[in-house]
Amino acid sequence: MNKPYELDDLDRKILALLMENAKQPYTDLAAKLFVSGGTIHVRMNKLIAAGIVTGQTLQVDHTRLGYDVTAFLGVYLKSSSEYKPATTYLRGIQEIVSAHYLTGVYSIFLKVVCRDTDHLRNVLAKIQKYEGIQRTETFMSLEESINRPVQVLSAEELKELRE
User: Fold this and answer.
1) How many C-beta atoms lie closer than 10 Å to residue 17's C-beta?
2) DSSP state at residue 153
3) C or N terminus of the chain, fewer CB within 10 Å?
């Protein structure tokens, strides 16, 4: 059995800096961390191979694209055996941007992004069309206050790194 990759201080610093700005060239990271660009490249390859870094994505402000409504849906399934088929069905609805299988009162919790409330109503109809869904509860987001990745450095370490 493979031993899990253990992050060291340099790995955590590389991740922290890239989570703030993934477009930073490795040479800039290297200069900030007092190592060579090759060291950053090797470390990133190891983090990717270990499955710690799983991809590179582009974050888009959906409100600037005209998607002004964010809603969360608590989904009640008719039975727990509906989970896999329901998620397969829900994957086909592009306005659903995340789904979580839960403990508690809901079976699935969805985040949905729509242009307006009419668009949301249409998306709700698509979601509720699936027979395995008993009912849903919708929560409209008024404002997103926090959206950040899990931090791998303490606040003090991060402050030092930024200086």
Assistant:
1) 20
2) S
3) N
